[in-house]
Design brief:
Elements: H1 8-25, H2 32-39, H3 43-47, H4 51-72, H5 80-105, H6 110-133
């Protein structure tokens, strides 16, 4: 794995897309209310906190994840379709079930796994598609 072959603009765009997906996914119009209930959060708790730190670190974490995924997808021959497939497998096979293990031990409801795990499946699939297509 040679980091010099990584398309850094693609990494930034992939992270931004993950951030935008999260904004939509956790909005009240989609899964925000279900996520709040499953996570045991109320509106006041969600509204509180240091927004700049939370959103800033979330974007930084997405950048790290996009860069790491780009390292896996740097092989020649990776396309939009194969990148999306590998992103899906990462999101579903690793992240969804990693959250599932934590959710089991924390005694979280199934909605917690479905909302949070679903976000990662969609996000990693999109990231993989971007990184696979934009070499």
């Amino acid at each position: 794995m040679d980091p010099s072959v990584i398309n850094l603009p693609a990494v930034v765009v992939a992270a931004l897309v993950g951030f935008v997906i999260g904004g939509a996914w956790y909005a009240p119009a989609l899964f925000g209310a279900a996520w709040q209930r499953a996570a045991g959060l109320d509106d006041a708790t969600v509204a509180g906190g240091n927004k700049a730190m939370i959103f800033g670190l979330a974007f930084l974490f997405l950048l790290v994840m996009a860069f790491c995924l780009a390292m896996f997808l740097a092989a020649p021959g990776v396309t939009l379709a194969s990148g999306a497939l590998y992103g899906f497998l990462t999101g579903f096979g690793w992240l969804f079930f990693a959250i599932g293990v934590v959710a089991l031990f924390e005694r979280r409801p199934w909605a917690y796994l479905l909302v949070n795990g679903g976000y990662w499946v969609v996000t990693m699939t999109a990231m993989g598609a971007i990184l696979g297509a934009w070499k």
